[in-house]
Amino acid sequence: MKRTLAIAVSATLLTGLLAGCGGGGSASNGEVNVYNWGEYIDESVLDDFEEATGIKVNYQMYDSNETMYSMLAGGGAEYDVIIPSDYMIARLISEDMLEPLDFDNIPNFSDIDPELKNPEYDPENLYSVPYMWGLMGVIYNTTMVDEADLGSWDLLWNEKYTGDIVMIDNSRDAIGIALKSLGYSYNTTDEAQIIEAVEKLIEQKGILQGYAMDQIFGKMEGNNAAIGTYYYGDYLTMLENNPDLGFYIPEEGTNIYVDAMCIPKGAANKENAEIFIDYMCSTEAGLKNCEEIWYSTPLLSVRDALDPEVASDPLAYPDSSILAKCESYAGLPQNILDLYDSEWTRLKSMT
């Protein structure tokens, strides 16, 4: 669930990614159309791929799973590779919107951590290959937040910090945080629990600075907010620019998520898409991507190649004591997805 989208280039086609290092000639082996989260790749990997394969990459970016889904469902664009998050993959599978993968074309799948194979969102591992994974938590400014207030999701509802709290701006994560703070599952299908969680978010609105996805970087790095919730890989990026930031996993538990590479139904360049997916699972590409964006790699060879301090980071590669507090998103039935949509609209429309 990567999310450092540069707003100015959101959903803008990146041009100039031609095959070869310096010749500028056109690719000879066709093309592949990739739709990914913003700034969720080391861009040199795209050049490397084109040089190695002769396949031209047309690369576009989105800022949320819901944006990607709307584009795909609306038929407004054609993509060969998409990189949705776990719960969205489950939805795409249930709606017959993904192609089964030919793993003969993806031999590097063997390097994927077995713990990430056959996941709940794709139990037979027919449609997806993990790209990155990580944990959701609370980011706070150590100079602005009292240590005694840390530990729970309830920090996001603490009136002491009115006007300095930034809430994540997507329905599954925001409602999920409220559910966890109430002691419920991220994957509950109890409509009363979901409505109760949204009521808790409505109570929170009056103390928020606002909702944000990518904007949280500028807010937390620039000391323009005291508290936010985001992903550990992005926290490490923010920490480089503001050493006063801290991060914790709430005591009620959190989300462990996986973003995975998939091929949309009817993709025009399916074989090239599988070649691209396999390349992203190579040690060289995986290491470049991991070192650029700080998310946890699913590739065993890449983890072995990382700096030992990084590879032993307990929040990047958590042990069982941390994983016991984590819950993955599962697919939800359509009536619950509809409830999420209507309740999110109700929340956002309230002043």
Element string (H = helix, E = strand) = EHEHEHEEHHEHEHEEHHHHHEH
Shape: globular
The biggest beta sheet is recorded as:
7 strands, mixed
Radius of gyration: 20 Å
Tell me the quaternary state: single chain
The count of β-strands is 10
- Measured by DSSP, the beta-strand proportion falls in 15-25%
Number of helices, where a helix is a run of at least 4 consecutive DSSP H or I residues: 13
| Uncertain regions spanning at least 5 consecutive residues | 2-27
Q: Summarize the amount of helix as a percent range.
A: 25-40%
Classify the secondary structure makeup into a structural class.
alpha/beta
Average residue pLDDT? 90
Query: How far is the first residue's CA from the last residue's CA?
Result: 28 Å
Quickly describe the structure.
The chain has 351 residues and is of the alpha/beta class. The protein is built from 13 helices and ten strands. The strands form two sheets. Strands 4, 5, 6, 7, 8, 9 and 10 form a seven-stranded mixed beta sheet that branches.
SSE diagram, text form:
Elements: E1 31-37, H1 43-53, E2 56-62, H2 65-73, E3 81-82, H3 86-94, E4 129-141, E5 165-168, H4 171-181, H5 191-205, E6 208-212, H6 216-221, E7 227-231, H7 232-241, E8 245-248, E9 254-261, H8 270-280, H9 283-293, H10 300-305, H11 308-311, H12 320-323, E10 326-327, H13 334-349
Parallel strand pairs: 1-2, 1-3, 5-6, 5-7, 9-10
Antiparallel strand pairs: 4-7, 4-8, 4-9
Structure description:
It is built from 13 helices and ten strands. It is of the alpha/beta class and 351 residues long. The strands form two sheets. Strands 4, 5, 6, 7, 8, 9 and 10 form a seven-stranded mixed sheet that branches. Helix 4 packs across helix 5 (191-205) and helix 5 packs parallel to helix 13. It is globular.
